[in-house]
TrEMBL record:
Record gene name: FAM162B
This protein's name: Family with sequence similarity 162 member B
Recorded family membership: Belongs to the UPF0389 family.
Localization of this protein: Membrane
PANTHER family documented for this protein: GROWTH AND TRANSFORMATION-DEPENDENT PROTEIN, PROTEIN FAM162B
Gene Ontology cellular-component terms listed: membrane
Keywords: Membrane, Transmembrane, Transmembrane helix
Segments passing through the bilayer: 104-123
Positions of the UniProt region annotated as Disordered: 26-64
Keyword Transmembrane helix in record: yes
Database matches in InterPro entries: DUF1075
């Protein structure tokens, strides 16, 4: 979203460019308005507890259900139920569900084509 503020042009996500006939310099980025965004959802590294050293973030882990395990097997992520670890990242489950959804769509497309030929064949008799 573009918004002109005086001789400044604000370009969405906090990038601001000076605009005007007298200014022909390169774009100058100003700090964004509001709270800073962090990809992990946490606070910046310098605002944590002091004196305990460096904070290590552990990736989120999730215990898969029986249905999730079957999807992981069907999509080929693991070869057997014994290979599936007790906790896996949620991204792995989401990816496996997306692959299973695509496979199910391909199966339904194939069954629809077979059903169309069956209807055409029964109509000609």
């Amino acid at each position: 979203m573009l918004r002109a503020v005086g001789s400044l042009l604000r370009l969405g996500r906090g990038l601001t460019v000076r605009c005007g006939p007298a200014t022909r310099r390169s774009a100058q980025a100003l700090p964004p308005r509001g709270l800073p965004c962090y990809s992990s959802g946490g606070a910046p590294s310098n605002s944590g507890p002091q004196g305990h050293g460096e904070i290590h973030r552990v990736p989120a882990q999730r215990r898969p259900s029986q249905f999730d395990k079957k999807i992981l097997l069907w999509t080929g992520r693991f070869k057997s139920m014994e290979e599936i670890p007790p906790r896996i990242p949620p991204e792995m489950i989401v990816t496996a569900r997306n692959k299973a959804r695509v496979k199910a769509c391909y199966i339904m497309i194939g069954l629809t084509i077979i059903a169309c030929f069956a209807v055409i064949g029964s109509a000609k008799r």
